[in-house]
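pipeline/complex-builder :: batch 7 item 3
reading input block
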Amino acid sequence: MTTFSIRLAVRDDIAAIVAMLADDALGATRESPDDLTPYRSAYERLESDPNQLLVVADRGGEVVGTLQLTIIPGLSRRGSTRSVIEGVRIHRSTRGQGLGAQLIEWAVDESRRQGCQLVQLTSDSARTEAHRFYERLGFTGSHVGFKLQL
Amino acid sequence: MTTFSIRLAVRDDIAAIVAMLADDALGATRESPDDLTPYRSAYERLESDPNQLLVVADRGGEVVGTLQLTIIPGLSRRGSTRSVIEGVRIHRSTRGQGLGAQLIEWAVDESRRQGCQLVQLTSDSARTEAHRFYERLGFTGSHVGFKLQL
């Protein structure tokens, strides 16, 4: 069984993360892996915010997975803190090896450690395989996710 | 036409906000308006985080609406910043007067002002009236929202 270590992303991981974001049916049209400038600025913001955890899965020094976990305090549900998972990607070379589940389990454990009572994420309605994956991990697709592009 | 002012919530607004969170088919089972202690702790966390904007709609000194806007930087979509809207409530006395739309429009304008490229929210699948409301405001229900209780 392959062993992955999950760790906070560093600045040198940006190119590998962006390559994974772009190597995706939906991401291909939305990313610009040839120009990392906007990603570097975004990374600075993430790094300076203690409620943002951008992580990578590392296999022998190679970045093969990523996700972003955001911690959101709030008043509702008796002052519950929730977490939001965004930007989950597994490198093409590494799919089907259980890394997706390991990354989500990391996010759930970290959320619990940070006192969250709820973990949430949205997944494009077209990603039906992803939906089955999240259901297997115990998530319930109880909500409709609305987006407005600005 | 009634005029509402939308402003950041202050500590003295907590009881009014919690009363609105609890006065709701789903919220009734999840909130404890008789014990504000957990809400006060959560408010302290919100207040100390510049990416959290808890606002109320105020009509002549009376709190009649609320929502929470969270600003989330990220790498995906060329380093886009997105915002998330949570905890939208309108006081029972004030429904049908356009305040919901005014609050969401405030959130959209503020998101734009903060450089966000995307505004998102999830709404329980049971809230079909809310779904039509968000669609009228230009949102697209393109995603499935998954939740995991911890």
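note: Residues 50 and 120 of chain A are 19 Å apart (CA to CA).
queue -> next item
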